[in-house]
Every structure is written in structure tokens, then in C-alpha cells.
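Page 42, continued from yesterday. The earlier attempt failed because a stray header line got pasted into the input along with the sequence. Redoing it now with the clean sequence only.
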Amino acid sequence: MNLSNVKKRFKVFFNRGVLSVISFVVLLSFILIAIIAPLITKYSPYEQNVSNKYAASSAEHPFGTDKLGRDILTRLAYGARISLLASLLSSLVAAVIGLVLGLIAGFFKGFISQLIMRIADAELSIPPLVLTLVLSLLFGDGVFGVVMVIGISLVPTYIRLVFGLVLSQKKNDYVLAAKLIGQSNRKIILKHILPNCFPSLIVLFTMNLGTAMMLEASMSYLGIGIVPPTPTWGGMVSESYEVLILHPMQAILPGLCIMLVVVAFNILGDGLRDALDPRLRGKL
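This time it went through. C-alpha cells are written below.
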């Protein structure tokens, strides 16, 4: 892809309107906040001061403190690290596993292909949150457990997408020509089929980042995700549930962060779809 094509696709992406620009800025801002969290606040996300619990907004604590006297702004900034990292890693796990299984199921016919697709169909029939509840019993809590649980929950979406893409790519003349000249199946998959799957995979990956963020927040809210006192946005919403009437901002702020990031991921995914697929180019 030459430079002119890259510029053209960026133009199509940002031509979706002001929402694409705002979403890009919002997402970039949260990533930056997560990286420079120690520079934003002087407090530790674990530092407690019970004598100063439920403090109102002030110069020392711009968003106040929680029930243990911890600075809310600090926990929001450090919580961005955990929430964004967990959603990114789980989406990567799902993409890698789903890509491999989808390529195998689509390219090779027979029992293995049928087995992979039936397992994917069965997993898709289960609501994601219910599936994460069951898988959490196997992998436990903590960052690793959450990443694996969410990753496995998202795998079927990649399998179905790659499976369909491979079936359509197999019928193209260049794949048939490669078989005729004696190229191996591995070379055909890696050289001819896989590169043509990437545009659709990138779009799905972007959209699944938002889904992973919601699942991580839901798991933390239910107490089966990343255990306290590690700061996560979903965990902060769960901890402030008891004082929702008296101190609503303690739940509204992390909830607003989750909403903004999820919406930004989905709008960026739509923009990438338009930029990478000329047939779908349009405006919101």
C-alpha cells in the first residue's frame, strides 16, 4: 500500500464526521492518562486515609475520596491502566486463537472443521456474561484469569468471521493457481489467504475492544474479576453501589469512563470499516 492510498483511507476514516475525531481524541486521552498516571497525581491508588473518607471535591482531591479515603482521581487514572490493558490483552488472545481455528476450519474440510464450527456455534449460543461466569470458575480472578476468560468468550466471533473469509478466498483464481503449481497448504494460507483477512479482522478487533471492556467491568462489578484493592473502573462502580444516593459521583465517574471508551471503540471500528472496505464508505 503506497502513501497516497494510506492518506486516502485516513481521509475516509475522518470524513465520517466530528464523532470520529472526538472518539479518536477521547481514546487517545485515556491511553495518555493511563501512561502518565504517576505524573497526574501524587497519591497512590492504594493509599488509605479513613479519617478523610467521602471528602468533597477540593484542590487536594479534585473528585473527592471514597469510603477508605482513597483519592478518586488517582484510582480513575490507575484504573484506566488495568481496564484498557485487560481489554487489549483479552482481545489479542481471542484474535490469535480465533484466527488459527478459523483458518483451519475454513481451509481444511472434514471432522476437525465440523468440530471447530460446532463448538463455536455452541459458545455463541451462550450469553457472553453467563459464559464468563462459568469460565471464571476455571481460571480464577486476577488479571491473567480475566484476560483468559474474556479472550475465550470472544473467540467464536473471530472463528465465524475468518471461516467465512477463507471460504470466499478459496474460490479465487490465484488460490487455485497456487494449488496447481504445487504450493503447500501452509504457504497458500500464509501468503494468499491470511493477508486478505486482515482488514476485516482489524475492524472486528477494534469493536471487540469495547465488548471486552464491558465484560471486564461487568466481572469486576460482580466481584469475579480483578480483585480489590487493584483499581478498575468496574470495581469502583461496584464499591460505590452502597452509597449511590449519598455520593453518586463515585459511581458516575467510572461509569462515564467506561461508556466513553466503549462508544469510542465502536465508532472507531465503524470508521475503520469504511476506510478499509470501499463498498461501505459513508457517513454517520
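Notes: The chain has one domain: 19-32+72-280.
Reminder to self: strip header lines before submitting.
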